[in-house]
Design a protein that fits this description.
Layout (H helix, E strand, L loop, with lengths): L2 H12 L10 H6 L4 H24 L9 H23 L1 H7 L10 H9 L6 H31 L1 E2 L2 E2 L13 H17 L26 H21 L1
Antiparallel strand pairs: 1-2
Helix pairs in contact: 1-7, 3-4, 3-6, 3-7, 4-5, 4-6, 7-8
Amino acid sequence: MNKCTERLYNGIVKENPTFILMLGMCPTLAVTTSAINGVGMGLSTTVVLMFSNMLISALRKIIPDRVRIPAYIVVVATLVTIVQLLLQAYVPSIYAALGIYIPLIVVNCIILGRAESYASKSPVLESTFDGLGMGLGFTVALTVIGLIREILGSGAAFGISFIPEEFHISIFVLAPGAFFVLAILTALQNKFKAPSATNGSVPHSGLACGGDCMSCSGSSCMSNHDKIEADKSAASDKE
């Protein structure tokens, strides 16, 4: 498996930002009232992730270390503004449905996390595929959650109704429904021993404390950060 394919697999399956690392929960829970909304938010985030990783990787030797975070935010904010204007012009229905969550892509922790942990240290092509993989993984997760909520709450899939109204469970298209669906999917991951941030079996990640939410608190979180830095130092010494 070459590096680019590995980055795609990593983002979609091995370190899926929603189902494995539990990142980007705000848009995940807020916009997934339908599958179309999930696809729209996921693909918008994918475009920003891919191009921000590409630009940050290309500029990584130029951006001074002490201003790297503000520089990343400027790059991401510029891309988000372009995506927002394109949606407003060509897909107004998606633009209206997503609303304030489009500009909030700027502070999505998935984007800044990948910029800091991967794009700022890796070649342009690999960073681009890393952003594409993470974005597609995010899109798949949002679409699955949105589809389940839409079927149960509205009796439809991608806007096509097929369940009579008397069988709709309307709570699933309301705010609590997002938590119920995510909790059920996480419980299934734990039941079948699939990698998850809530069962301690998540693959080690360069993001934050490694993506293991079970052991991320207080001194445990700090020790995880120290371990990541030690691993990076060991890898540098080998090179």
